[in-house]
Amino acid sequence: MLSTDTDILAAAETWRRDGHAVALATVIETWGSAPRPVGSHLVVDEAGNLLGSVSGGCVEGAVITEAIEVIEAGAPRVLEFGVADETAWRAGLSCGGRIRVFVERLD
Fold this sequence. Notes:
The protein is an alpha+beta fold and 107 residues long. Strands 3-2-1-5-4 form a five-stranded antiparallel β-sheet, sandwiched between helices. Helix content is 29%, strand content 33%. The radius of gyration is 14 Å and the shape is globular.
């Protein structure tokens, strides 16, 4: 089982060497109750295989879809998921938060 970002990045490099197109998603900002810290990684290949996590399952599906598009287009992008502002906490939402993820193709 892959347990560290170092393991995940090493596996991504192995995929690349084996001829797979690979995208790397990295958490670049969090606010509130985001389940993964800044610097967490998810790697995705062109078939949608993945290693790692950027949100503990909350937004992985959307990130995988975007990562495959980044692989095809080659242009990196920043994704943002979550509540709109701090008022969500005052309203008592128990699972609020926000996460920004940078997705890039690894060449």
